[in-house]
Amino acid sequence: MAREKTRRLSGSRHFRQRLVLATLTSTPVTIVDIRADGTPGLRDHEVSLLRLLDKISDHSDVEINETGTKLRYKPGVIIGGKDLEHDCGLQRGIGYFLEPLILLGLFARSPISIRLKGITNDTKDPSVDTFRMVTLHMLKHFGVPLEGLELKIESRGAPPLGGGEVLLRVPNINSMLTAVNWVDEGMVKRIRGVTFSTRVSPQIENRILYAARGLFNKFIPDVHIFTDHRSGSSGGRSPGYGVSVVAETTTGCLISADATVSCTNVDEMSKESEKPELMSPEDLGEQVASMLLEEVAQGGVVDSTHQGLLFLLCALCPPDVSKVRVGQLTPYAIETLRNIRDFLDVKFIIKPDPNSSTVTLKCVGAGVKNLARKIS
Amino acid sequence: LSSDDSEEAIDSDDGAENTSKWKKSLLARTLSRRSASLMQLVYGKPSTELDNANNGEDSSDEEFFIPKGQKKQAKSELPSFDDIDAEDYSKFFKVELRDWSDGDLVESIRDRFVTGDWSKASLRGR
C-alpha cells in the first residue's frame, strides 16, 4: 500500500473505522459530502475524535473546510503516552471513543494511559462496563497480554449531562497480533453483570437485578450481578440507572448486553412537548435479560456488538489464516468487512453454517506491524 | 422392514435413483449459492470491486479539488440503498425482543447452557 495515495470517501458513516484504518495503514483520506443535506458538517463528537487522534499521534494533519462537510486527514505516527486527558463531550458515550482507542493503542510507540471524561453509560454506545468485562478480554485471544490492559471507572455519568470519568490503559504490542482459530462457542456456564445507579435510590438496582435474574434462572443458577451505586461527585451530573450483563461460556467466549435509562437529551426533549415516561427498573432488567438470551440464541463467539471489532482484529493479524464464528451478520459488521477490504485489501471467505445457523469467516491477515514502536 | 421395501419398490418404478441424484446436486448447488450470495451481499458483484480498485489508483493528492461533474460520477457508483451519512453505531439494536418467559423459546436454547444436554450441544459445532 503506497503511503502517498489519498483515499477518497464520502459521507459520515463509519467515521471511526475509516480513521482508524487510515491511521493503521498510513493512508491519507479525504472525506467529502459529510452530511451534505440537513444540518451540514461534522458533529461535535467527530471533531472530538479527531482531537483525540491528534493527541495520541505525531505529525498528523487535519484540514476541515468552513462548513465541515469536507475533511482531509493525513495520519501520523501513533505515539501514545501517559497521563493523557480527553473530554469526550456529551453527544456520544465514552464507548464511542474506546473502540478506536484500543485498536490504535496496540500499534502505538508507547503504552497509552488516558483519562476520558463524559458519559459512561448510555443507550447508543456500549457501556464502559461492557467494555471492561468483554471487549478488553477479546484482545487476549489475539495474543495481547492482559497486564497493562485496564479500564477503571472512577466516576459515572449518565446522559444528558455526563460527568463520568474513566481511566484507560492499553499496552502496545511488540510487532504483530497472533492469528486465531476461534470457532467453538461452547456452552454458557455462568452469567455475570453489574448494575449502576447515579443520583437515584440504590434500591432501584435491586429491582433491576431481581427481574433479570428471574429470566436467567430458568436456564442456569450461577447468576451473579453486582451493584454499583454512585453518590456524590462520583455519580456524575444526571440521574440514571442501567445494567450490563455477560454470559461466559465453557470455551471462554463472552456474550454481552447492556442498557441504560436516563432522561433524554435536552434537544430531544424540546421536540416532544411532554416528558417521556422512563422505563421502570423491572422492565429494564427483563429487557436486558432478553437481549442477552437473544444473543446466546444467535450463537457465535462474540455478540453482535463486537462483530466489527472481531473482524478488524482478524484482518490486522499476520499473514496467517484466522477463522471465527459469529451469529447473523449485523449491518455494521458488513460495512466493517467492506472497509477492511478497501483499506487492508483483506477479503473474508464467508460461509453460512446451516446446522447452527451461524456464519464462519476465514481470512488471511494483512500483517499490520507496529512500526511506531522503538526498537531497543 | 417390509414397508420400507415396498416404498423403495414404488420409488424405483418412478426412477428413484435419478430423482435422488438430481435432488442431491440441487441441494449442493443451493448450498454453494447461499454461501456465494452471502459473499455477494457483503462484497457486491465482482465487477464493482474492479471499479473500486481503479478509483484507488486514480485518486491522488492533487484531486482534493475536483470538478463537480466528476464528483457526481463517483457518487453514482455507490449503492443507492446505503445512506452515506448513517450514524456510526457499533451497538446492535434488535428491533423486537421475543418473550423469553415463553416455554418453547426457553427450550430452543436450553442446550446452549451447561445445564442442558451436552451430547446435543456437541453436535452443534459439526
Overview of this structure, please?
- The complex is a heterodimer of chains A (376) and B (126).
- By secondary structure, chain A is an alpha+beta fold.
- Among the domains of chain A are: 1-76, Translation Initiation Factor IF3; 188-298, Dihydrodipicolinate Reductase, domain 2.
- Chain A is 29% helix and 28% strand.
- In chain A, helix 5 runs parallel beside helix 7 (281-298).
- In chain A, helix 3 links the parallel strand 7 (81-87) and strand 8.
- Chain A contains 9 helices and 18 strands.
- Chain B is mainly alpha-helical.
- Chain B is 60% helix and 0% strand.
- Residues 1-13, 47-61 and 70-81 of chain B have low confidence and may be disordered.
- The longest helix of chain B is centred in the first third of the chain and has 28 residues, at 16-43.
- Chain B has helices spanning 2-13, 16-43, 46-58, 68-77, 103-108, 118-124.
- Classes of the chains: A alpha+beta (376), B mainly alpha (126).
- The interface between A and B is large, with 73 and 55 residues.
Helix content of chain B: 55-70%
Structural class of chain B: mainly alpha
Mean pLDDT of chain B: 66
SSE sequence of chain A, one letter per element: EHEHEEEEEHEHEEEEHEEEHHHEHEE
Morphology of chain A: globular
Q: Terminal Cα separation of chain B, in Å? A: 31 Å
DSSP strand content of chain A? 25-35%
Strand content of chain B: under 5%
Attribute tags:
heterodimer; A: alpha+beta; Translation Initiation Factor IF3; Dihydrodipicolinate Reductase, domain 2; four-stranded mixed beta sheet; 18 strands; B: 126 residues; mainly alpha; 6 helices; flat; disordered N terminus
Write the layout of secondary structure elements.
The complex is a heterodimer of chains A (376) and B (126).
Chain A lengths: L6 E4 L4 H10 L4 E4 L11 H13 E2 L2 E4 L6 E4 L2 E2 L2 E7 L6 H13 L5 E7 L9 H11 L11 E6 L8 E7 L10 E2 L5 E11 L4 H14 L6 E8 L9 E10 L4 E9 L3 H6 L9 H18 L8 H10 L4 E6 L4 H14 L4 E5 L4 E7 L12
Parallel strand pairs in A: 1-2, 7-8, 11-16, 12-13
Antiparallel strand pairs in A: 2-5, 3-6, 4-5, 8-10, 9-10, 12-14, 14-15, 16-18, 17-18
Helix pairs in contact in A: 1-3, 1-9, 5-7, 8-9
Chain B lengths: L1 H12 L2 H28 L2 H13 L9 H10 L25 H6 L9 H7 L2
